[in-house]
Design brief:
- By secondary structure, this protein is α/β, with parallel strands linked by helices.
- The chain folds into two domains: 2-69, no CATH class; 81-185, Ribonuclease H-like superfamily/Ribonuclease H (Nucleotidyltransferase, domain 5, 2-Layer Sandwich).
- The chain is 39% helix and 19% strand.
- It contains seven helices and five strands.
- It has a five-stranded mixed sheet, covered by helices on one side.
- It is elongated.
- The mean pLDDT is 87.
Length: 187
């Protein structure tokens, strides 16, 4: 009797929960067109932005659905790192530190400023204890008032703290930070 009841229960719920098509229900063609139109007219918009705009219009659509229906652009809408370097090579300088061990096993830090256009060392200095103030002073010494470049490329080292960034900004140089974990962009 119990086995018969369990089989009947299983058959009933299998019949009740059957679906005509497996998977998610399809979205309307109107919403698919809207997703394609938004992604083609706004190439910098990602999935979260399109999803929030659709919510404002009253449509609740999943991220997977938007990813599946949006238009993929062949070229990135923003310039790449390589394009940036090519376009601004005359206006670029790079700064970085490297360590130098001495004969007495002390570690010295060498700060170097390199101009990209001619690959010329503009300035360098050595210290045993680098600070943000010392580093900012080196940038000021490297560029007298009329010779400041437009862009200064640097890595994400903590030595380039708030003091350094403010001092560089005050001299009219725009700081460009390399991408996180991208050693090929290193100055």
């Amino acid at each position: 009797m119990i086995r018969w009841y369990q089989q009947g229960f299983r058959i009933y719920w299998r019949w009740k929960s059957r679906s005509r098509k497996p998977g998610r229900p399809e979205i309307d063609a109107e919403i698919r067109k809207l997703i394609r139109r938004m992604s083609s007219e706004n190439p910098t918009w990602g999935t979260p932005r399109i999803r929030s705009e659709l919510r404002l219009l009253g449509y609740e659509v999943s991220k997977a659905t938007i990813d599946k229906n949006k238009i993929r652009h062949r070229k990135p809408p923003l310039q790449t790192w390589r394009t940036f370097l090519d376009n601004h090579v005359r206006d670029l300088v790079a700064v970085d530190f490297f360590m130098v061990p001495t004969a007495t096993f002390r570690i010295l830090f060498c700060f170097i400023v390199l101009r990209h256009h001619r690959r010329v060392v503009v300035h360098f200095n050595v210290t045993a204890h680098p600070t943000a103030e010392w580093t900012a002073q080196q940038v000021n010494e490297a560029f007298p008032e009329d010779q400041a470049p437009r862009f200064l490329i640097r890595d994400r080292d903590s030595i380039y703290g708030d003091f350094f960034r403010q001092r560089v900004k005050h001299t009219g140089i725009e700081g460009v930070v390399i991408a996180y974990r991208s050693p090929w962009q290193s100055p």
